[in-house]
Amino acid sequence: MRKLKFHEAKLLKKVNFLVWKREGSHREAMVMRRYHITGRDDYKKYASLCRMVQKLVSEVKQMDPKDPFRVDMTDKLLEKLYNMGVIPTRQSITQCERLTVSSFCRRRLSTVLVKMKFAEHLKEAVTYIEQGHVRVGPDTITDPAFLVTRNMEDFITWVDSSKIKRKVLQYNDKLDDYDLLN
Description:
By secondary structure, the protein is mostly helical. The chain contains ten helices and three strands, in the order H-H-H-H-H-H-H-H-E-E-E-H-H. It has helices at residues 6-12, 25-34, 40-61, 68-84, 94-97, 101-105, 109-115, 122-130, 163-171, 177-181; strands at residues 134-136, 139-140, 156-158. The protein has a three-stranded antiparallel β-sheet with strand order 2-1-3, with no helix packed on it. Helix 7 (109-115) packs across helix 8. The termini are far apart.
């Protein structure tokens, strides 16, 4: 690229093509850094989910409070979001209005591993997942963006052939000689 002339450089001095005002990139970058999200697409998907839920809540709130359809839809929405682990209780629909991208990020497998003390840091948890050391139920998960529901939390374990599992069992003096054959 050629060197810009003086008047061209002066015109482009106040223009930043990397940061757009309407995107709120500072918040996005902060959340992506905190939860170790590598793809911007994941953040955008979580943001669109939040917007959809907030739009649904506003539609439901406009209905008559005694309408059986409103009561049914409110219960279903609260139950679904609670089972996903995105909201802490099923008390009121106002929790759904305050839904954020961070609440979805806290349910990612990497974050849950840190919370359950499988890993000390988020980056370490992402590495374990990508290397195939973690399974949820019978399935080995290699995607750190895997959303873990409240029911799935109990089924997170190390893969049987994992060196980390062997090291943990050896440390706790629970390593069986039969396991060494595998």
